Every structure is written in C-alpha cells, then in structure tokens.
Amino acid sequence: MAKAQASFSQKIFTLALFASLPSYLCALIFLWNIEYSNYAKTLLTTLLTLSVFGFAWLIKQQLKFQFQTLSNLVEAVRGGDYTLRGKQRSVDDPLAELTGQINLLSSSLSDQRIASEEAYRLLDKTIAHINVAIFAFDANQKVKLVNPAAGRLFACEFQQLFGQSAANLSLIDFLSGEQSQLIEHAFPGGSGRWQVRLDSYQDKGIQGKLLFITDLKTVLREEELKAWKNLIKVISHEVNNSLYPIHSISQTLNKIVTSSALEEDYQNDITEGLAVIGERANNLTDFIKRYAKVAKLPEPNKQIFTMERLLAHTAIIPANVNDIIIDDASYQLMELYADQSMMEQVLINLLKNALEAGAPVVLSWGEDDKCQWVHIVDHGTGIKNPANLFVPFYSTKNTGSGIGLVLCQQILDKHNGVITIENRAEGGCLASIKLPKIV
Q: Could you tell me the pLDDT band of residue 328, with boundaries at 50, 70 and 90?
C-alpha cells in the first residue's frame, strides 16, 4: 500500500512540474532576452527553478499527508478502533465529504459494537441462569462454549470443561444420535431421565454442534406438585364445606339427646355415636389443614443466622437429648442464609422421622467450596420403597399424613437447595440437606 501511495504522489509531483513547465520556459526565454547581467539572470533562473520545484514538492507532500491521514483512519476502523476522527473541513474542501463519510462510518460501527457487546452480556447472563446444560462443540468435537448448568452436570466448575473433547466427557453418542431424545443416564452431577436436543451452528463458515441437556426430574416434579396443589385446594374447599355442617349438627343433636327423656342405653349409644362423628369431623378438618400448607407455602423470608441459633430454636433436640448425637466435628460456626422458621420445620420433620426409624440419631453439618450441608443419620432398618418418599398422601406409618417430606422438599426448593434420603450400606438412612453457600 505504501508503494502504491508513493507512486501516486510521485505522479502528482510530475504532473505539477509539467503543468508549470510552459510558464517556466516562457519566463526563462523572457529572462534571458532582456538586458540584465549574467549574474542576475543566473540568480533569477535559480530562484524560478527552485520555486517551481518547491511548489510541486509542497503539492506532493500535502496530498501525501491527506491520503496518509485518510489511510490511518481506515486502518483504525479495520483494526476495531472507532475513536479516531478526521478533521472537520469546510464545505468547499474536496476531501470534506470523504472525511465526513469515514467519520460517520466510525460512529456507526462504534454504536454497533456497543449494541453487540450489550446484547452479548445479556445473552451471557441469560445462558448463565438457564437451568439447562448447554455445550457448543467445534468441528473437532471439542467444547468451545458451556454454561454453569453444564458444570453442575459434571460436578465441576464450568470453566474446566473448555477444550474438553466430547469423547472425554462421554458425550460422543449424543452428538451422533437423534436431534431430540429422552434418555436414562448417570452423569457425575446426577442421574435420572434427561431430554437431549442436538442442533448446529456456523462459525466463520465452519459447522459446529450445540447440545442441550435438560433434567426432566425437576420439570416433572414441578408439574406434579402443581397438580397436587390444585387437587388439595379443591379437596380442602369441598371437604371443609361438608365438614362444618356435620360438626355443627352433631353438636346440636348431642345437646338434644342429652336433654331428652330417652332410656339410658339409647341415650349412651346415640351420645357415643355423635361424639365419634364430631371427633372424626375434627380430625378430618385438621388433616385437610395440614395438606393446605403445601398449597399455601409462602415465599421464604431469608436472613443470615448461625447453625447454633437454628439448633437452639429446634425444640425436638433438647426433648430428645439422649437420642440425638451431635457430631463433635460439627461444632463449628456456619452461617446460613435462609428462612429460619422454615429450616426449623425441615429439621423437626427429618429428626422426627429419624427418631421414629431408630435411635440414636447423629446430626452433623459443614460446608465446602460449593455448598453448605446438614446430615442426619439414623440406625433404623432403612427405606423399603424410596421411589414414594416425596409423593404426597403416601406414608408407611399408621399415623403418618404423608406431608412431612413433601413440605421439606418444597422448602428446600424455595431456597434453591436439595434434600436427599438414601439407605446406608451399614444400615439405617442418611438424610442430606444441601444449600447454596453464602457468597
């Protein structure tokens, strides 16, 4: 480019000389035909020659400077620097329109870059908060882009997945399968049923593949709970409407029977029967109220409090001080960011279940780089049917309502936490609570 520019400026210099050549020759002819001394003629000839060549050189340098300036502006735009601007010129200047157009181009590209960066930041934040694992593989089937959900799927920081091959991540079969499929699979971060979607994208003309992995367990559980909530609302409304008049009528009939002159045997039978009706109506009302808690669980009022404070307010612990053992290693300061009353309810439900399963119960807690955890271990016989643990209305206890674990699960969901209950190889069960760590 510099060679072409020098050639053009040299042509301008030559053309300027040729343009001044007729006048220069006429001036020399006139100068040497007048009666001056040779010294004067030589001096004037030298000055005339220098002025012709000098002005031609100035024209060349001025044009060279202007084109160099425009070249620098265009090079800056090509390099992504949109801050440089050409000098504003008068309207009559022939370079004014070209300089103005380059300035407008720089402003337009600068605005487009800002809009593109803002859109990228928005997209990046959106992808980061999507609870779907996203992988972008290049033509060599290596990870080019992932989101935090993908890191959780492989139980690691998502930055560690960059550059990994699909074969190393055991995802090679997903890239060669159908575009959409439902699978049962065990990943390092969890197992269950997953929806896998495969798509493609173009990067500089080279095709890559996009892989989306969705945890259907969470989606199905949310839909299931929503259906249970709607059912509970309907049942609560209908049953309460029927129970109130039954309870009221039983009390009225009981008063009538008590004050009437019936034989003692008849009166006792009727009184006992009405008492049973009233008692069962009350029990059924309480039963419906407990289930209504699932449908009306409020949003948590999160505050920072210590684990020690939480245990001090959990009444079931001092009431069973001989059966609940707190692990010595857990006597450490751990601050939680949660709704204290809700977490008390979770602890009470889990500790009560553990005590009923088999004492002693061992309580421990701690935290790592990823989360805070609470473990409750019992010494019972274990769970016979783990699949129905979090199913509403299901209970293996004669007096159980089937609401305790469902309520715990919902509370943990509202705290972005997880509750798991599993059998231990050495006997008994381990109930585990995981909460996000305070940042």
A: confident
Residue type, 266: Y
Place of tokens 């100035």: 58
Angle between helices 96-129 and 38-78 (to 10 degrees): 20
Token duo for residue 139: 């033509």
The pLDDT tens digits of the residues spanning 381-411 come to 888 766 656 655 545 555 444 567 877 888 8
8 A C-beta contact, residue 194 and residue 182: yes
pLDDT digits (tens, 9 = 90+) for 18-44: 777 888 788 778 777 777 777 877 888
User: How far apart (Å, rounded) are the C-alpha atoms in residues 382 and 353?
Assistant: 11
Residue 210 sits at the vertex; the CA angle it makes with 206 and 214, to the nearest 5 degrees, is: 180
Instruction: Say if residues 402 and 395 touch (Cβ distance below 8 Å).
Output: yes
Instruction: Answer whether residue 335 shows pLDDT above 80.
Output: yes
Sequence-ordered strand ranges (E) for 221-307 = 303-306
Query: For residue 346, how many C-alpha atoms fall within 13 Å in the half-sphere facing its CB?
Result: 28
